């Protein structure tokens, strides 16, 4: 009798566990959550370039959250999906990379042997990487990518990577992130010699200057930054190099200069790696200053319309003004205080 009771008890437990397991198996899976990102890749329109999305805190870019490709106009849409159904929020890095299919429109007065509006071939572009950084509270976001958002994004990532930095891109709030964007914009403005202390470069409508009728004739900041962005397409290309190499070299040099000052606003830019970087930045700045006026003239000729309200662009970086801008941001005495290594 005792053995029969034990057998019956064991069978009851087994049936109960089986029922529980069946209940779990019958439970519907969670509904995935999605978050859409859309924008344009504008260095001239970058057509058929790869678009990758990362968490902004993933500085090693180890996990691609979503990927897509720009269309013939340089526009893209990409969707981030969370299969667990969790809300998709936080800061995201969007990177556009030119590959073996990518072409670009010449948006400068001349691009080597090519003229304004011509198509730049793949071999001149492969390896070009541009980026932007944006924040989502779970809603869709617009995220245009260009050379100036790349400079600002590099500044933000460099600040977050500094030892002792208070900027945690994995836990930043929407309000704090906006402050960070504004600080980075001010730093880029100080490099270019354009006052962006009241601007957010990530929200400015920087358009493809090869589409002449889209260049602003009323907003001097948007027009000037559009033409600066376009001017990089006209950079002198050394033998054995490519346009992509020259643009990347400039962007890398800007990153070295800003990283040096973010680490120490009183650093001597005339020594070490920063000296070579500053020389590259200044050589490029001289080309930018000349080319901006030439592109403005090309746009007016193309449209037959009003002059472009271009701000004066200096031929070299004002080192003291740049250092003061970075220092004020870090200490919170002049900027908004969100990007510096020990800023809020």
Entry keywords:
four-stranded mixed beta sheet; single chain; four-stranded antiparallel beta sheet; alpha+beta; 13 strands; 344 residues; 40% helix; disordered N terminus; globular
Show the helix and strand layout:
Elements: H1 2-26, E1 33-42, E2 46-47, E3 50-55, E4 66-69, E5 75-82, E6 90-97, E7 103-105, E8 110-111, E9 114-115, E10 119-120, E11 129-136, E12 141-142, E13 145-146, H2 147-161, H3 174-192, H4 220-231, H5 243-263, H6 272-303, H7 319-331
Parallel strand pairs: 1-12, 1-13
Antiparallel strand pairs: 1-5, 2-7, 3-4, 3-6, 6-11, 7-10, 8-9
Q: Mind telling me the C-alpha Rg?
A: 25 Å
How many helical elements? 7
Work out the count of structural domains. 1
The total count of strands amounts to 13
Strand content: 15-25%
> Judging from the principal axes of the Cα atoms, what is the shape?
globular
Q: How does the helix and strand content classify structurally? A: alpha+beta
Described by strand count, sense and barrel closure, the largest sheet is: 4 strands, mixed
Low-confidence stretches: 1-11, 13-17
Report the average pLDDT across residues: 90
Determine the fraction of residues in helical runs and give it as a percent range.
Answer: 25-40%
Give the terminus-to-terminus CA distance: 75 Å
Order of helices and strands: HEEEEEEEEEEEEEHHHHHH
